[in-house]
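Researcher: We plan to redesign the surface later, but first we want a full-length starting point. Tokens attached.
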């Protein structure tokens, strides 16, 4: 390079940098790399909860002839919900609804406006929508356990597409997207109402309309592999740290406390369930302690960013007691066939957690909300619970009846007898 070339290149490079650096700085304005790294990790953890966590948890609980069917449902829902979320559902949940913003969002079709430089707080909006997508995936997937062994795959896919659109997206908007429940002051840090109560009551309606499995409750229907169930439950426990601590949308002290109370509640609920079962049935079971831990994770979800360790212990204890009752006494008393206790664990656990959030969020009880009027907050929490139960329950009933009239929702008696693995997918889970 000649001396003249060197002299000319220096001002050229400087001019380019002068033009580029402000744009780079603008693109990074407000970006926190620590928050972004944590939210990328949290998104992976929550997706990990559905595949493989929930898939394995459910696969171990059903009979061997239906192992692949529940795994296929979880996997297929992951694919379908992702497509619908990208096309329009993200906009329904988090778009600007204009005059309808209290009830529903609009816009952002095909993630329009979500670019490399688009921010949501201190993280890229692309990361925010991905994190919220993982919630939209697991919510309908939770329902799979309620109708295991007896729902047609095609009917399940059509119903879930409709349910995501007219139930999940609006409720998510009401609580997190600028809608009326959030504006009222209803506290739901990570999805007690949006995810668990919403899915729990829908699961109950589904299993009641579908009817009982052939032979239930007289014919024994033991889990085919509790090893798979415990592995799946363990994955759910670990993934739940992204679910709850990630909902802070930042790597800070609130996220740290959310992670701590999540673990405490799960441990307390699992321990409580084990003791109840031990005292009432003579021996503790691995299915019981795993289910109890999941119940504790469910119940702490709405409270995780608001309560301290004392609240976590209380919520874990309460969820262990009430979810044990919901999965055993409540189901048997009313005679419905919730195959894998989705309402008993997620519906009941979500209600327990949502209500107790109104108590233990108070700073006087170790929570993070100063000056909380517990009586008023309990009323708001109850409103959030009731609104979600009624809306999701009624719309689910309508959608199930609609899908049943169009294509039928239940497999034939013969298809149920041979199992959904063969009848719906022409495959078997185990070639022994």
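Model: Full-length starting sequence:
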């Amino acid at each position: 390079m000649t001396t003249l070339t060197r002299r000319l290149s220096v001002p050229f490079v400087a001019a380019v940098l002068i033009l580029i650096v402000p744009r780079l700085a603008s693109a990074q304005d407000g970006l926190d790399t620590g928050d972004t790294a944590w939210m990328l990790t949290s998104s992976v953890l929550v997706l990990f909860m559905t595949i493989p966590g929930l898939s394995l948890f459910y696969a171990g609980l059903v009979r061997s002839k239906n192992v692949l069917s529940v795994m296929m449902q979880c996997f297929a829902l992951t694919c379908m919900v992702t497509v619908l979320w990208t096309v329009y559902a993200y906009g329904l949940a988090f778009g600007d609804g204009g005059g309808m913003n209290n009830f529903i969002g609009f816009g952002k079709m095909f993630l329009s406006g979500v670019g490399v430089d688009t921010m949501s707080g201190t993280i890229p909006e692309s990361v925010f929508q991905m994190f919220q997508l993982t919630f939209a995936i697991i919510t309908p997937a939770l329902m799979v356990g309620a109708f295991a062994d007896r729902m047609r795959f095609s009917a399940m896919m059509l119903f879930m597409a409709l349910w995501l659109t007219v139930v999940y997206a609006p409720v998510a908007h009401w609580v997190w997207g600028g809608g009326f429940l959030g504006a009222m002051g209803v506290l739901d840090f990570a999805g007690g109402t949006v995810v668990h109560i919403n899915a729990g009551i829908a699961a109950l309606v589904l299993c009641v309309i579908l009817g009982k499995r052939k032979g239930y409750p007289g014919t024994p229907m033991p889990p085919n592999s509790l090893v798979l169930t415990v592995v799946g439950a363990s994955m759910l426990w670990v993934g739940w740290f992204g679910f709850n601590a990630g909902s802070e949308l930042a790597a800070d002290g609130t996220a740290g406390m959310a992670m701590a109370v999540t673990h405490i509640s799960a441990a307390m609920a699992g321990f409580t369930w084990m003791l109840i079962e031990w005292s009432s049935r003579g021996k503790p079971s691995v299915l019981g302690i795993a289910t109890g831990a999941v119940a504790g994770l469910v119940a702490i979800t709405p409270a995780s960013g608001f309560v301290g360790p004392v609240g976590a212990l209380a919520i874990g204890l309460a969820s262990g007691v009430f979810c044990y009752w919901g999965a055993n006494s409540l189901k048997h008393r009313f005679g419905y066939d919730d195959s894998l206790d989705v309402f008993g664990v997620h519906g009941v656990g979500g209600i327990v957690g949502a209500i107790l959030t109104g108590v233990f969020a108070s700073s006087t009880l170790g929570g993070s909300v100063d000056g909380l009027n517990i009586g008023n907050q309990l009323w708001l929490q109850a409103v959030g619970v009731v609104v979600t139960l009624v809306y999701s329950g009624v719309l689910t009933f309508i959608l199930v009846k609609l899908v049943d009239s169009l294509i039928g929702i239940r497999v034939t008696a013969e298809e149920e007898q041979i199992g959904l693995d063969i009848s719906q997918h022409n495959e078997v889970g185990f070639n022994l």
